[in-house]
Amino acid sequence: MDGRTTAQNFDIAVAGGSFAGLALVRGLVQALGSDLRIAIIDRAAKPGVAPNDGRAFAIWAGAKAVLSNLGVWDAIAPDAQPMTSIEISDSALSDGIRPTRLTYDALTDDGAPAAYMVPAATLAAALHASIKDEPSVTWIAPADADSLSLGKHTADIALRDGSGISASLVVAADGRTSKLRDAAGITTLRRGYDQTGIVATVKFGEPHNGVAIQHFLPGGPFAILPLKDNRACITWSAAREEAARVTALDDDGFLAELDLRIGGRFGSIALDGPRQSWPLDIVVPRELIAPRFALIGDAAHGVHPVAGQGVNLAFRDAAALIEVIADAARLGLDIGSGPHLEIYQRWRRFDSLMSASLYDGINRIFSVDGIVLRAGRGAALGALDHVGSIKKLILAEAAGLTGELPKLARGEAV
To answer: Which of 137, 276, 286, 347 is most exposed by smallest CB count within 10 Å?
Structure first.
């Protein structure tokens, strides 16, 4: 520290009070009780409150298992809309007919829903409520990290207000533009897309019956994701110029653009919340750890939203890090330094890299326009639609039920 103030001392400091950071803290408290002193540093004046966040997330079976084992799913379930089926199409916007090329019954092998759609505000509130009164957890908010120093025995964070925090381990869960990741000397591979992400919640005049639809259009994917009360979250990746035109429209004009892409499938549509937009990019860190430092969530992998997997990857990160920290703590080891952090990196790096590459590839392949290319993609999707065994494997992979899963994702206690 720079001597301006005496640092507060903790075992773990988590930068970022969003989904990944809150899940990590909840799991550590659950596994180790009050044995760890944990600080959460968050920029939000009211942590856990996201009234203007219009996003909703597909919580796949593996992530649902994590949330269930963290004891927060019961608070989420009333607002969670099961997906009953998934439809995929690939067409031009001007096509009079938009045929479905690939369909999935969105069920796991045991007949449970493979995914649920959950509003961001519901998810944030449930995770926040699970730890807000824990005596071993100190909330430092609103606060912003100004600098980071990684030493042999501690990691020291200087906050913008001049105060300081010292911890055995710092975990950055502060998003894909993570300031602490840069301060730790971890470089990234970053590339911007010529696309803007647009999100809006709408209410339909006819039942959606839990159907999720992904239209691959030349400018980018357009998803209709079912929510409770016959609403849906529209997640749209549009070419940058097209997005600028659409987002500048008034509500009636914006709804007309949505209806053009939805094609009247669910009757009338009305906006049911704010619309939001942001530029899309891909961010892949070269490392997930540094001395007394680890990355989780979007700080560890900024992926394209085409498959809606970002938050699911974040919960797998949290589950893996909970497990390795808990194992180290129970053995009396230094939780901020040791082979357990290397285990975490090996465990999560492959999944992060493969996911980022896969979603990038899907977006690029389907964003290339042309009659011949579209015909080829349509033929490939149509052929896949008739191979049930491969479809099951793809659905299991999307659901987060394959590979070396953390205990929490397997339904086991840590």
So the answer is: 286
Which sign, positive or negative, has the C-alpha torsion 345, 321, 307, 181?
negative
What is the structure's pLDDT at 157? Answer: 96
Nearest to 80 by CA among 67, 93, 96, 99: 67
Nearest to 24 by CA among 257, 297, 239, 208: 297
Q: CA neighbours within 13 Å on the CB side: how many for 254?
A: 23
Bridge partners of 190? 283
Do strands 293-295 and 289-290 pair parallel, antiparallel, or not at all (unpaired)?
antiparallel
Q: For residue 26, report the phi and psi dihedrals to the nearest 5 degrees.
A: -55, -45
Q: CA dihedral defined by 59, 63, 64, 66, rounded to 10 degrees?
A: -150
Per-residue pLDDT, 58: 95
Which of the residue ranges 98-107, 308-317, 383-392 has the most confident prediction, judged by mean pLDDT?
308-317
Please choose, from the candidates 162, 172, 144, the residue with its C-alpha nearest in 3D space to the C-alpha of residue 2. Answer: 162
Give the single-character DSSP code of 147.
E
Collect all residues with Cβ–Cβ distance below 8 Å to 84 and sequence separation of at least 6.
105, 106, 113, 209, 210, 211
Helix, strand, or coil here: 190? strand
**Per-residue pLDDT reduced to its tens digit, 281-339:** 999 999 999 999 999 999 999 998 877 789 999 999 999 999 999 999 999 999 999 89
DSSP string of 12-46, one letter each residue: EEEE--SHHHHHHHHHHHHHHGGGS-EEEE-S-SS
> In the numeric block, which tokens belong to residue 284?
């892949």
- Identity of the amino acid at 392: K
Q: What is the mean pLDDT of the chain?
A: 89
CA–CA dist 412, 409 (Å, integer):
7
Identify the bridge partners of residue 235 per DSSP, sorted by sequence position. Answer: 199, 223
How is residue 126 written in tokens?
């449930």
Residue 96 has pLDDT above 70, yes or no: no
| Rounded Cα distance, 152 and 47, in Å | 32
Q: Does the global pTM surpass 0.85?
A: yes
**DSSP class of 99:** -
End-to-end CA distance of the chain: 34
Instruction: Show the CA angle centred on residue 175, arms to residues 174 and 178, nearest 5°.
Output: 70
Euclidean distance between CA atoms 18 and 177, whole angstroms: 14
Q: Among 56-60, 168-172, 257-261, 374-378, which stretch is predicted with the lowest mean pLDDT? A: 374-378
